[in-house]
TrEMBL record:
PANTHER family: N-ACETYLTRANSFERASE. It comes from the Bacteria. The lineage of its organism: Bacteria, Bacillati, Actinomycetota, Actinomycetes, Micrococcales. Residues 1-78 form the N-acetyltransferase domain. This is N-acetyltransferase domain-containing protein.
Length: 79
């Protein structure tokens, strides 16, 4: 099973709602026979990553990207 979105309104963050939501998701998944529960989180979201790690989630993959400038703007191609 996969968790797609966990959104806590800013005024309610830091009060344990995210942790409770994840624990509820784990209970739901387990009751339906799931052996694992996966999720994706943006690398810059250190607060969410900290929460998931504190709940025992492990990093299983890392995606990377690079913004490329248009070739016509690169000085090294103009020579």
């Amino acid at each position: 099973m996969q968790v797609w979105d966990v959104v806590i309104d800013p005024e309610h963050r830091g009060q344990g709602y995210g942790r409770a939501a994840m624990q509820l998701a784990e209970t739901y998944a387990h009751a339906r026979g799931a052996r694992t529960l996966g999720l994706s989180v943006f690398g810059f979201n250190s607060v969410a990553r900290g929460l998931y790690e504190s709940l025992g989630y492990e990093t299983t993959s890392v995606k990377m990207r690079k913004h490329l400038e248009a070739p016509e703007l690169r000085d090294d191609l103009a020579q």
